[in-house]
Structure formats: structure tokens, C-alpha cells
Write a structure and sequence with these properties.
Layout: H1 13-16, H2 22-28, E1 42-47, H3 59-72, E2 76-81, H4 87-90, H5 99-117, E3 121-126, H6 131-142, E4 146-150, H7 163-174, H8 180-189, H9 202-213, H10 228-247, H11 251-254, H12 257-269, H13 275-286, H14 293-300, H15 317-322, H16 327-335, H17 351-355, E5 381-386, E6 389-396, E7 409-412, H18 415-423, E8 432-435
Parallel strand pairs: 1-2, 1-3, 3-4, 7-8
Antiparallel strand pairs: 5-6
Helix pairs in contact: 3-10, 5-6, 6-13, 7-8, 9-12, 9-13, 12-13, 12-14
Length: about 450
């Protein structure tokens, strides 16, 4: 059967076309291929589904929706998996050292499967801290028509709780302000189902950044994990990747320097996670874009913090979803001259074209401030330099901390020891907690310390 739209099949044709490729076709029939499918472009659907974290427990169903979209648009969708791990589960344990490394494993595995199988395009679906940038790094390396889909945010737990509420409850129990029964109640009800952590933590931050980068469909970053909107987002992504194939639009056409500036602008306005600095620089490197710490400082001088979202604020991501998501914010930033509207996106249109006709937020909402009435007039992401971090460090300064801070340094060589000190009431008001040996190492550092590689943690004030 001829390819009805004559979609390009640059990568799949050498794998399945011709009499000599009969063994390859024979291997695909048991997987559900029909003779007509061999003339269609093959689209790999990279699913980060697993039952190790709520963030990703539903992504197998979202992958099915993406496959339907690919198939309905004239392609042949093929689902495959990659790993994910959970920072929320492993945090405070030795397992956390695998967190940053998992990003590279995810990128490598997507690149490996797509490259080996000869997929012409890719839809990648992620829902947790490291698999989202891992997906983008893999797509950038492959540089085939591709779309990223966010798995969506979790709904609030009982009494508007979330995963951070549980961490806070541990501290309250340790200092005697709640009892064991209340701790257990919070533990059991704070995380009600599927979806990524409900504040502007790393997952929602990176989803928003990837959408602003142009690699997701409009509002993909601001949908509940279990919703008709998210299912439709996945199906549309499957359809849209065929359009990208037809137009020969690839990730490096989208992931330009100006697009990364857009991503930085949006995460600052949202009060996003410091992890965005780590991930955006890695994503830019994979795309051949020279992005550095100074770019965050430069952009941060003119971009205000507008979102009153957890952890530094009051509201949850699902509440932002309910008032329109990220699109009205981006329209506000575009109209304010803070976004590059000419940047290409996975819709095949520019950022400005995507935002045409987007309605503003309801006047009654208090989650997103106006540009002329910001929570903070410049960025909360501050790049620090000094004798403790000659190459630079990242701090999250929301404006509530005052202009200066000093105190006695309490130094620990691992996170677990620091946590024990906090819970044993060894840390007093005014102390500065410093946790050493928890970041990624350069090749020049001692091999004996390599067991800490990838356990990127923090210095806490």
C-alpha cells in the first residue's frame, strides 16, 4: 500500500524496505504490524511508565493515547520504555546518588532505541524530575522530528497537602508539635494518586520550561495528570509529530538560544526550581547551544517573579491549571516584551502565533500577579560566586530572607548525617547547614570520591 501522504521515511525505510529486509519485517508482524504499516513512517513513543513513583504510574495509558494519535494521522506508533527513579522516595538515603545519573541513562536509552529501530520521529512522555530533561537531551541528540509530552500534575491531598507537607510533618513530629497519629494521617493522604509533585517543584518547573522552549504543545505543562485534557494532549502530540515530519522540523530548529531564553524567563516568572539551571544547561549542550550561568543572571535582572506557587508561595499547580494554566502567563510576558515571539515551536508555528487569542486570567484570581505588581521585581534564581564555589552556585532567594545572612556553619559530609542532626535538635536558629561531597564530580577529582557522583544536593540556609 503506498504511503498516502508520502511522509518522509529516512530512518525506517532502510530497516524494513526491500526483499533483503524480510527478516526485519518478519520480526515486526508478531508486534501487530500489517503489510500496509511498512510504508508508513514509524514513530517511537518513549514511555517513562513505571510503578516506582506516582509521577509516572499512569504514563502507560498516556502512551496508548499518543500511539492512537500517530496511527490516526497516517504513521505507525511503536511504544517502548525507559527508566525512572523517584527523588521523593530516595531523598535522604544512599539511593539519592543515582538521581542525576538517571537523567543520562534515560537520554542514552531513548537515543539507543530510536537509533537502532530506525524510528522517523519520536514522542517522549515524562513525568518526574530527571526523566523530563533526560527525554529532551535524547531528542536533541537524535535530532529527528520530536515532541515532548508532560505527564501532568497531581491533585492536592487532603487539606491541600502535598509531598512537601509530609517532609514538613516529619520536622513537626521531631520537635513535638504533632503526634504520631497526625503524622500518619498526613503520610497516608497527602499524595492521592497519579501525577507529579503538586507545587512549582522540579517536575512542573521543567514541564513549563520545555513548553516555553517550544518542544511541547501549548498548555501541555499545565494539565492534571488524570484528565481528558491530558489524554487529548497526548493524542494531539502523536498527530503533530507527523506534521513535523512533513515539514522536516527538528529539535535543533526549535531549541535555539532565544528559545532557551524564553524557557528561563518563564521559570523565573513562575518561581521555578533551582534544578532548572542544572537541566537547562545540559539540554542546551545537547542541542549545541552555548548556555551558561551568566545567562540566568542577565535574564533575571529584567524578569520578575509573578507566581505565588508552592514551595515559596501559597498555591498548587492544579489551581493554576484551573484558571488557564501557563498560556495566559506567557501571553502576558510576550506582551510585556519579555519573550521572543518569533521562536518556532512543535506546532509548526511561532510562539507569538500560538499565543494569539489567549484570554487573560480571571480578574478574581490571586495566583499570578501582573508584571507591574510582582512578588519580586527580579529573579529568585541567583548565581553566586565565591571561595565555596569558584565555578558558581545557584541559590533560590525569594525576597523573604532579607538582604544579608550570616551564621555559624554546621558542616556535614553526607545528607543523612545532616538530617539526623536536624531531627536531633542539634541545629539552632541562625546556623548555616553545609552538606559537602554531594554534587557531581569532575574527571580530575579523586576516584575514591566517585561513589558520590550524581548525588546532587544542596547547601541550605
Amino acid at each position: 500500500m503506498p504511503n498516502p501522504k508520502k511522509y518522509p521515511r529516512k530512518y525506517s525505510a532502510p530497516v524494513v524496505d526491500g526483499f533483503e529486509r524480510a527478516p526485519s519485517r518478519a520480526m515486526l508482524y508478531p508486534l501487530g504490524f500489517e503489510p500496509a504499516d511498512f510504508s508508513k513512517p514509524q514513530v517511537g513513543i518513549a514511555s517513562t511508565w513505571s510503578m516506582v513513583t506516582p509521577c509516572n504510574m499512569h504514563i502507560n495509558k498516556l502512551a496508548d493515547e499518543a500511539e492512537k494519535g500517530v496511527n490516526s494521522a497516517g504513521g505507525k506508533g511503536v511504544i517502548f520504555n525507559t527508566i525512572t527513579i523517584s527523588d521523593g522516595i530516595s531523598m535522604g538515603s544512599e539511593g539519592m546518588k543515582y538521581s542525576l545519573i538517571s537523567r543520562e541513562v534515560i537520554a542514552d536509552s531513548i537515543e539507543t532505541v530510536v537509533g537502532c529501530q530506525g524510528f522517523d520521529g519520536v514522542v517522549a512522555i515524562g513525568g518526574c524530575d530527571k526523566n523530563m530533561p533526560g527525554c529532551i537531551i535524547g531528542l536533541a541528540r537524535l535530532n529527528r522530528p520530536s515532541i515532548f509530552v508532560y505527564g501532568g500534575t497531581i491533585l492536592p491531598g487532603k487539606n491541600r497537602t502535598d509531598v512537601v507537607s509530609v517532609f514538613e510533618a516529619v520536622g513537626k513530629f521531631a520537635n513535638g508539635s504533632i503526634d504520631a497519629i497526625e503524622l500518619e494521617n498526613i503520610e497516608k493522604t497527602a499524595i492521592p494518586g497519579a501525577g507529579s509533585c503538586g507545587g512549582m517543584y522540579t517536575a512542573n518547573t521543567m514541564a513549563s520550561a520545555i513548553e516555553a522552549l517550544g518542544m511541547s504543545l501549548p498548555n501541555s505543562s499545565a494539565q492534571d495528570a488524570i484528565s481528558k485534557a491530558k489524554n487529548q494532549d497526548c493524542k494531539r502530540a502523536g498527530e503533530a509529530v507527523l506534521s513535523l515530519l512533513e515539514q522536516d522540523i527538528k529539535p535543533t530548529d526549535i531549541m535555539t538560544f532565544k528559545a532557551f531564553e524564553n524557557a528561563i524567563t518563564v521559570i523565573i516568572a513562575l518561581g521555578g526550581s533551582t534544578n532548572a539551571v542544572l537541566h537547562l544547561i545540559a539540554m542546551a549542550s545537547a542541542a549545541g547551544v552555548d548556555l551558561g550561568l551568566d545567562d540566568f543572571s542577565r535574564i533575571g535582572e529584567k524578569v520578575p517573579v509573578l507566581a505565588d506557587l508552592k514551595p515559596s508561595g501559597k498555591y498548587m499547580m492544579s489551581e493554576l491549571v484551573a484558571i488557564g494554566g501557563t498560556l495566559p502567563l506567557m501571553k502576558m510576558l510576550l506582551d510585556g516584551g519579555l519573550l521572543h515571539g518569533e521562536c518556532l515551536t512543535v506546532t509548526g508555528k511561532t510562539m507569538a502565533q500560538n499565543l494569539q487569542g489567549v484570554a487573560p486570567y480571571p480578574t478574581s484570581q490571586s495566583i499570578i500577579r501582573a508584571i507591574n505588581n510582582p512578588i519580586k521585581k527580579d529573579s529568585h534564581l541567583r548565581i553566586l560566586r565565591g571561595n565555596l564555589a569558584a565555578g558558581g552556585a545557584v541559590a533560590k532567594i525569594t525576597g523573604k530572607e532579607g538582604l544579608t545572612f550570616q551564621g555559624v556553619a554546621k558542616c556535614f559530609n553526607r545528607e543523612e548525617t545532616a538530617l539526623a542532626a536536624v531531627l536531633n535538635d542539634e541545629i539552632k536558629p541562625g546556623d548555616v547547614i553545609v552538606i559537602r561531597f554531594e554534587g557531581p564530580l569532575s574527571k580530575t577529582q579523586s576516584p575514591s570520591a566517585l561513589r558520590w557522583f550524581g548525588k546532587a544536593r544542596w547547601i541550605c540556609l
